[in-house]
């Protein structure tokens, strides 16, 4: 059986912030709690912050920008935290 290699060239930041996509899509939800994804770890860490959903994406991008993480990289890191991280020694230059 062949497995698909995860291809990624570049630096993976140590951590980034993400939002709960289900809560963001639910019109009845007014407040959201950001989560932290850490490089190489499956799952996420819950923060104790509570943000108004109206401004959550702006705050998220501000926090990630301070860490040097683009929205695209945060999205990749969120996926990797659920489905597996690239093996740095063989797949990340």
- Averaging pLDDT over every residue, what do you get? 88
Strand line-up across the major sheet:
1-3-4
Helicity level = 25-40%
**SS strand fraction:** 15-25%
Biggest beta-sheet profile? 3 strands, antiparallel
- Cα-atom radius of gyration: 14 Å
Given helix and strand content, the structural type is alpha+beta
- The shape is globular
Uncertain spans, ≥5 residues at pLDDT below 50? none
Number of DSSP helical runs: 4
How many domains? The number is: 1
The SSE order reads EHEEEEHHH
Total count of strands? 5
Report how far the terminal alpha carbons are from each other. Answer: 26 Å
Describe, in plain words, how this protein is organized in 3D.
This protein is of the alpha+beta class and 93 residues long. It has one domain. Helix content is 39%, strand content 15%. The protein contains four helices and five strands. The strands form two sheets. The protein has a three-stranded antiparallel beta sheet. The protein has a two-stranded antiparallel ribbon with strand order 2-5. It is globular. The chain starts with 14 loop residues before the first strand and ends with a helix. The mean pLDDT is 88.
Summarize the structure.
It is built from four helices and five strands, in the order βαββββααα. The chain is α+β, with helices and mostly antiparallel strands.
């Amino acid at each position: 059986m062949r497995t698909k290699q995860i291809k990624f060239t570049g630096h993976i930041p140590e951590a980034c912030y993400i939002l709960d996509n289900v809560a963001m899509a639910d019109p009845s939800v007014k407040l959201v709690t950001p989560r932290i994804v850490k490089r190489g770890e499956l799952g996420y860490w819950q923060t104790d912050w509570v943000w108004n959903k109206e401004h959550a994406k702006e705050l998220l991008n501000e926090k990630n920008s301070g860490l040097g993480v683009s929205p695209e990289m945060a999205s990749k890191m969120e996926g990797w935290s659920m489905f597996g991280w690239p093996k740095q020694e063989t797949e990340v230059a």
